[in-house]
Amino acid sequence: MIVITGCAHSGIVEIAEQAQKILNKKIALLLGGFHLMYKDEAEINRVVNQLRKMEIDALCPTHCTGERAMDKFRMIFTHKCIAGGVGKILDFN
Fold this sequence. Notes:
single chain, 3 helices
């Protein structure tokens, strides 16, 4: 399952959990704006830890995720964190 968000105003964790609940599938890729740009370090850490517990195969944080959060995702998810942005082409085959 691939979950694509625009700007996750309602919460990226909540969106991912709801997608898993509805489709009863593991998330292969969580892609888009995670809406953490203006969040403090504690909230960023909470989100990172909750997503890590979900065992998502890959993440591609973009847009409104914010640099501090993107740095944290790259550090924690290492090879599972895909660099995204304008012009990024992803092949799902």
